Request: fold
Amino acid sequence: MKRLAGGLVALSFLTACSAAPWARLAGAAAGGAGARSEAGTQVTLAYKDRATLQRIADSAVDLEVVDTERRVARARVTRAQTAWLGTLGVSVQPDPQPVRLEAFDPSYHTYETLVRDMRALADAHPDICTLVDLGPTWETTKGKADRRVWGLHVKKGDASARPALAFIANQHSREIVTPEIALLLARKLVEGYGTDPEYTTFVDSRDIWIVPMVNPDGHARVVKGEDWRKNTDSDPVPGFGNVAAYGLGTDLNRNFPFHWGEKGASNDPENPTFRGRGPGSEPETQAISKLLQSRKFTFLMSYHSYSNLIMWPWGYSDAPPPDPRLPAIGKKLGALTGYRPQQSKDLYLTSGGITDFAFGQLGALAFTTEIGSWNDGFLPPHSRVAQFWKENEPAARYLLKTAAQPGQDL
Reply:
């Protein structure tokens, strides 16, 4: 999700248009049957209030970006969903500035090239960087692939007593700019060691974990040209018949075991925000949960796209977070990136997310960054990455610099 100038928020809460079926949820939530083969059409929605937006978010409508001040959104909808939206008083019009679903730009990393470059970075700097296998993907557990969730552990010497930070990317597979930003941060830390004084100090005085690709199975589908959001878990779901054939997947950012299964997370496997069979059911979620529980993290940054937004907990509740450092630091990160800062719930309620889990259960000061503008979409040309890094490096530096005394400068 990302909020842009004037309140624009691009949402990560999407599902595959060409690949994901809509029939069951379109029928249940939209009051009529939807064609399983029908892909969503990109439109602009004009909604009347936050309650209506919440109803849309809880349905199978493929929200992409929301302007909360003008109360308009970009979405992909089927014919059945269009009819249902009309019953809510929502105006549905052709998008005047559609974002095309372009082919995967080969300048971006695939899973294979990302792991290759991560391994090369660790091999070239073994004294400060280690490549760590955090666990298998769903397809790997089923013998369908050989992919792992990999992390780079960056630190000099014994870091067990130092402030710890985690930078996580690509929970949603089609958000392809996020692995690039995470890898650039790793390279800056490792290759800048000994030449950049500030980054050298970070490596010497912090315990840093960087996970550029949480969802390798889904990312592999995006590389092949599919518009895919979730992981690829296709095990049968009780009460939903034989969905295994569709490979529907679980939204990894609705699967964490903290207020799991509440608002903004569907129990329908055909929904873009399907929460999974149970809290922490997915191997990718388990890998990240195990990492975050392995020690006390001061900061978590979770990179998503798109909408130029900085967010913090809570997402599951309208209540403000009990730690005033979250909004204070969030506003600082907003100033550094030029993105709009807000509490996650200010858009609409969601549950089972990584930042609520990291903060609510583990005590980490947790943030989400949504990278990219309304015009960028999920598959911007790779030439945009340099600008995204320019926007986000100052915020990463800030977290690394202040981790020993978070919020003390504010």
